[in-house]
Design a protein that fits this description.
Largest sheet: none
CATH superfamily of one domain: Tetratricopeptide repeat domain
Oligomer: single chain
Shape: globular
CATH architecture of one domain: Alpha Horseshoe
Structural class: mainly alpha
Helix content: over 70%
Number of helices: 33
Distance between the termini: 32 Å
Amino acid sequence: MLRTCGMILLAIPLAVALGCAQNPTTTRSKPIAQPSPTLNDSAFSRILVAEFTLQRHGPKAALPLYLAEAKRQSQLDIIKKTVQLALISQSNNALDESLSLWREVAPDDEHPYALGFSLALDNGDITQGAQLIQQAQNAGVAPYFVIQYLDQNLRSEQKVADVSALLQQWQEDESLVKQLLSNRLDFIHGDYTRVVTQLPTLLQQVPDAQREQLYILLSSSYTELGDLQQSRNTLIKALEVFPSSQRLRINLLGLELKMGRVDQAIADFHAASMPLFLRQQVGLNFAQQLSENHPEKALMLLEEIPKAGGLDYQLDYLKAQIHHQTGDLAAAITLIKGVYGNLAWNATRDLATWLYQANQPERINTLVIERAQQDNDIDHILAISQLHQQQQRTDLTLALLDLALDTHPNNMQLLYRKAIVLETNAQPAQAQHILKQLVRDYPDNADYLNALGYSLMVSQPDQLTQAIVYVERAYSLDDSNPAIIDSLGWGYYLRGELNPARTYLEQAWALLKDAEIGAHLGEVLWQLGEKDNARTIWQQALARDANYPVLLDTIKRFAPELLLSKDDHEN
């Protein structure tokens, strides 16, 4: 087998607490800050050993050294480093110990309570979550992290249910945070009347950091109850308190549109006093909402938003989307051709998709190559070649790859992609020529070895022995790759060794329910006399890809009635 290429109040993340990003796959970490002057020479030496171990052997090896030093020194920077390493190493025991140390050394710091609570609830440990709330309150820390956790997990019914259950274990009846949490749950459960009854009083008690989100919650509740005017009044009042709030401004403009006050919303946007960056952000969001029913007004609005400040691509991208929506393909393409940065792939994808929709796919390759030269991104070319294949335009696929290879003649990704396309379109000799070149240049690349071996075994029976040598070499390099395992099993089948063929093909099928693997496994089972099992495998493969050529050819040869029943079902 060939292998082809809302309303959320964010909690303070660990990255803020630790001063660096968390990434479970990271094997290296920045050295810790210069140790505190209070460290003695012995402690300083141990820290250097721990850091050396981290750099040479990774987080898991360094974690015990850092944890031991954190217990000895009670230095906050060392404790935070230990928490980071425990997270990366996924060591729950070390994480519990280091968070406990953090709470002991800095009892008024919200971060260790918030992180511990999040981990406890993620593991379904409601009791531990309640205990951490109590510890935070005992230390004088208001547990707003509970509300932040809920807001981050609104889409998880289980986590919302866990927070609801935790509310029942909350010991302090009059806690402001507890009342806010209960109010938030009322909103989630659709009790908007209760929200608008209680929330105005709570708004007067909370710190400013919590108040903005509550205004949005209150406004949304009025909207849900059908009182749009009161919802609007709430947002206007909130903007008097938070005049620079992007979320409040966007909510107000969206509400104006919902109320049918389109011109008033546009006037409010222009009249609002906002810094340039905020005007751009709010304008982009507002124009997107406006474009749903008033695309021409949205385009006029976007033309009036200054491009300075780094949002040029976002503005042009949205303009292009709206032009395409209104049927002006020429204007859409003119704009989207110049969109790069974080939206580069979105622009390339949309450009190709629009041209296919307009029955002009022959224009795609030239534009994609121009963009790839500007952005120097081979991945976009590979992705568009895949789009051509999905559209059954192999001619455009090969033309695109050849254009790219003119500029990057030795790019192994482009060469491999071209070889796969040639192989799957009955041009094995050309494919093998490229694959042999790749195997010479990259003798330890399992994908190249497997592709060459498979191509030889299915196109040149006299080369079967050499083909299996290539595939066995690939398997020695990557024995968990279902494509390689499938090739090995098929090679044994072609050699007449049905039992080992079955073993490998069943392993490949267990790893990946692929149509070609299903075709191969079904054929082996059929030859072993297990025809019912073969039919079952083929039916499962058809359910995944009913148009795969190898699968269809196999079934036509052995059980064509399966295709007749498929056609009857489709009709």
